[in-house]
Amino acid sequence: MISPGAVIISVLPVYLLMVAGALMRKTGVLRHEHDAGVMRLIYSVMLPCFILDKILGAEVLRSGSVVIWGIGLGFGLLLCGLVIAWGVARLIGLERGSGMRTFSLSAGCQNFGFTAIPVLEILWGSSACAMLFVHNIGVEAAIWSVGVMVMSGERGVPWRKLLNGPMVAVLVGLSLVALGLDLHLVGPLRKVINLLGVGAFPVAILITGATMVGLTETNKPSLRIIAGSLVVRLMLAPAVILMAAKYLPLVQELRQVLVVQAAMPAALTPIMIARLYGGRPAIAVQVVLATTVGSLLSLPWIIFWGIQWIGLKPLLP
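Predicted structure:
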């Protein structure tokens, strides 16, 4: 039986890295002008290599039905989050033109990358991480289709946004696994892929922490936005995700992914989408900051309760 303390210890390094990034920004070690170049390196090289390293050889992904379930749940559960957030937005008095769309996407979209992956790897290892990357295909598709339509109020879908380094890495990795060619990708080349990918998430989390410092300095908080986002992201949405993990006929690795996804704060992507498609970035920033701080307390307990309720066995003692 895992203890709450063990979960807290397992996720603490992620938050300490965020704090380290914030301190680096405050002290001038990690400057604003560094962000674009570093993130380009992460998204174009380091993260795709990390994804390939985890997918190649992942036996769970040799089943087409497992892959379909993963993608489908990534898409469907994010839509559920959007619906829940839309309802809460109306309850707290938001309307179209006053931040309702931005709040709905921001609070409805959980972090599915830089915070989720290290936590998942600590708790369950490489196989669960490989499953997360497949799940994230559905999440990305939902964000850049329905999410953009919600934010912009238009029906056009910028599908080209899906053609990024991580998405290509997932598709290439799945193709190699399906054909059985991944078993032949060994030796020095595989080691190079591993070495390039191993630093992706520590560096990305440092940048995330540094970015949050700037966000806190430029936005005035709203109590109803903060309260509404905490209710959606840390209470209602986790309940729906955990019920899916408990009652749907899923493989163990996908249940593990959903437990961690249930505990995640809001994602950073809606901030960018709000800026690109006429939303209110200040609201998205408040949602991200409020849920990230709130998850310091809620994340270990959601994971602990989810593990106990669903009957999972983490790698931790």
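Summary: The CA atoms of residues 49 and 192 lie 9 Å apart.
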